[in-house]
Amino acid sequence: MAEQTFFERGDIKVTSARVIFGGQTFALAGVTSVRGMEVKPDRKGPIILMILGIFCFLITTIIGIIWWFMQKPDYVVMFASASGESRAYTSKDSKLVADIVAAINDAIVHRG
Prior knowledge:
By secondary structure, the chain is an alpha+beta fold.
């Protein structure tokens, strides 16, 4: 059976047999499921800076607030296999991760 492509953008490719993220290739034969995941940024730094700003200087509070809002979550493609879960790909683009997850699910279904 010929390898069918389900998704291709830049250095990311999902086929009926494999998933390629740049130089890293995953065989779909071992993947039992896939899901997208959001990883919220660690906010301890801006919180500490804002607390220091309250006690020290107004400017540090402003910098802490700007820092807080500039942080964006990561979106992750998670693979599940017999050996457990692993992070396969991380991006700031939630739509890209959702498209990859949908393409991998299509490839898993196509694989049978």
